[in-house]
Design brief:
The chain has about 210 residues and is an all-alpha fold. It has a single domain, classed as Serine Threonine Protein Phosphatase 5, Tetratricopeptide repeat, CATH 1.25.40.340. It contains nine helices and no strands. α2 packs antiparallel against α3. The longest helix has 20 residues. The protein is globular and about 45 Å long. The two termini are about 15 Å apart. The mean pLDDT is about 95. The structure holds adenosine-5'-diphosphate (ADP) and magnesium ion (2 copies). One magnesium ion binds next to loops. The site of adenosine-5'-diphosphate (ADP) has 24 residues, from α3, α5, α6 and α9.
């Protein structure tokens, strides 16, 4: 076990706990399977963490997480999250430590990978409306003069605000886009899963 694998375990437990909630949100503007998809992915992640050869190597851990999600989750969000973890792994050193700089670099790479694969942008009512505001909290000038823990707290708040923002806009990507304006008023399920994943990591690191 390492601090990173323990953090990812906390994230997995959050997703498993909130499985029904995420599917209920998806039932309103999609096909009702987001919680099922995410839980399947994070069950595979927990198994992968159990058999890791190098839990102390964050690059290898992130690669294993991305692979487990990619190989086990269908639908839209699974491949996007899997890609995000793999892209983060690509820019992660084998002895990387959590700092403002590494959080900025890894989140930035994950977001770039998700954008490239899904062709969505901020404002399309997707997970990106939470992930991009989280990332911003670790970039200059926002992060200037802040400690890592201040950035984490700001990002946790930004994630909550990102979810609220998705309620106010119409979906332009994914299944919810079939509803167009009728998706206004509902939060995006992928935005909520991103927020919950970050919240779990934040609470674990702040414990
Ligand atoms: P599916 O829509 O295939 O059933 P899920 O329900 O698991 O897959 O995931 C839906 C979520 O995926 C959405 O709430 C949204 O946040 C995210 N999503 C869908 N399409 C995209 C995209 N092109 N880019 C980024 N995120 C997307
Ligand atoms: Mg769905
Ligand atoms: Mg589906």
């Amino acid at each position: 076990m390492s601090k990173l694998t323990e953090t990812i375990e906390a994230v997995a437990q959050m997703i498993l706990r909130e499985k029904n909630y995420l599917s209920d949100l998806d039932a309103k503007i999609g096909d009702g399977d987001h919680g099922i998809n995410m839980a399947r992915g994070f069950e595979a992640v927990l198994e992968a963490l159990d058999t890791l050869e190098h839990p102390e190597n964050p690059k290898a851990v992130l690669h294993a997480v991305g692979t487990a999600i990619l190989e086990n989750v269908g639908g839209a969000a699974g491949p996007l999250y899997g890609t995000g973890f793999l892209c983060a792994s690509e820019v992660c050193a084998e002895d990387e430590r959590l700092t403002i700089d590494s959080a900025e670099r890894l989140l930035g790479a994950a977001i770039a990978g998700i954008e490239k694969r899904g062709h969505a942008r901020r404002g399309d009512k997707t997970m990106l409306d939470v992930l991009i505001p989280i990332h911003e909290c670790f970039t200059a000038p926002y992060a200037d003069g802040s400690t890592l823990y201040e950035c984490l707290a700001d990002a946790n708040q930004a994630a909550n605000e990102g979810v609220e923002y998705t309620k106010t806009i119409a979906a332009r990507k994914g299944r919810a886009s079939y509803l167009g304006e009728r998706s206004i008023g509902c939060e995006d399920p992928g935005a909520v899963s991103s927020m919950l994943m970050f919240r779990a990591a934040y609470q674990f690191l702040n414990r």
